[in-house]
Amino acid sequence: MTRQLEPARLTWLCYAAMVCLAIGVNLLPVFLIQIGVTFGGEEPLNQEVLGRLGSLIFTGLVVGIVVTGPLADRYGAKPFVLLANLLMVVGLAGMAVSAGFLTLSIMLFILGLGAGMLDMILSPVVAALNPERRMGAMNWLHSFYCVGAVITILIGTAALATGYDWRDVCWVLILLPLGLAIAFLPMRFPTLTTEDGRMPMAALWRKRWFLAALLAIFLGGATELGMAQWLPAYAELSLGFSPVAAGSALLFFSVAMAVGRMAVAMLEGRVSPFAVLAVGSALTVVLFLLGAFLQNSNLALLACIAAGFTGSSLWPTTLAISADRYPNGGASMFAVLAAFGNAGGMAMPWLVGVVGNMHDLRWGIATSAIAPLLMLPLVGLLCLRTDQKQAIQPAS
């Protein structure tokens, strides 16, 4: 007997899996120094080697995103949700028992691979489960990434304060992906397209609206990660806060992002997603500039944290309007969107660093305002062409 589809239960399991994704991405930064000491022998690993460890997770993330999309369109979402959680289990367990640097490196790649598969597959599953409220569902889903980041930081901080080793934390965190793999196993998953079948990616690449959406999510990723990656350093070096306070700023930034996405999710049906994108972009521009140039350090830091709230919905809401526009885009469409979002998240931190080296970090942070500023006319274009499609069929 075929099991009935349970949209509400499966949606909440996907939300929990987003927490698992956040653990995979954020665990290494929390324990980077301790891992450097563990594997460095007499001398801790230098910054270049530690940077390579981070790049291994990101490489696995990208491979997971790119490979999973086309395969999920062919074989369905369920095998890849299960495989992703099992890869997270293997990665965490392998980290916990790794005796050498090579083993650790392999396990970090596997951890990133599982995280990338989850990053790609969860959004189309939740979009298919909630076709009438995609903006709310996408923002709820991605709010749990922020929740997972906060949980990882808090657990890591508590472990360091109480003398527990990073390996012990790996064994504790392994319970989540293991439990999720068991919970997902009996579930029936939705098809990722409508009865009309999937739109080929070649056709999507010819749609000007889709190309604009790719640029929008690139800018959304740039808005989010430009500030997130530089906030602790900016708070300490430019605003004069202690290392502990500067590190706490990132925690509060993640909380602000979670609350922002939850707030937008609760506005579903009452506010246009394009209004959410426009207002969020405009407010983020203002807050980035205030955070960069206010002379009062406390107010400047508060503005930076508040930007997490206003800019939080740009990425998930762009996913939602893309799924509404192309409900037959399938997992491949979400894979391309995720790849562009992550590309923006790579580009802006680099640009902030370049400008910071040329001038100072205040100007680097101010440079981040370029991304949400460029979002404003782009949102207008996306909204206009959506209105045109509703009035005249077919549209490009």
Automatic annotation (TrEMBL):
One Gene Ontology molecular-function label: transmembrane transporter activity
Source superkingdom: Bacteria
Gene3D superfamilies: MFS general substrate transporter like domains
GO cellular component: endomembrane system; membrane
Transmembrane segments: 12-37, 49-68, 80-102, 108-129, 141-164, 170-189, 209-231, 237-259, 271-293, 299-321, 333-351, 363-384
Coiled-coil region list: none
InterPro entries: MFS, MFS_dom, MFS_trans_sf, MFS_Transporter
Record key words, sorted: Membrane, Transmembrane, Transmembrane helix, Transport
Pfam families to which the protein is assigned, alphabetical: MFS_1
Topology with respect to the bilayer: Multi-pass membrane protein
Main location: membrane
SUPFAM superfamilies: MFS general substrate transporter (SSF103473)
Start and end residues of each Major facilitator superfamily (MFS) profile domain: 1-389
Record's subcellular location: Endomembrane system
Family in the record: Belongs to the major facilitator superfamily.
PANTHER family, per the entry: BYPASS OF STOP CODON PROTEIN 6
Protein's UniProt name: MFS transporter
Protein source organism: Oryzicola mucosus
Taxonomic lineage of the native organism: Bacteria, Pseudomonadati, Pseudomonadota, Alphaproteobacteria, Hyphomicrobiales
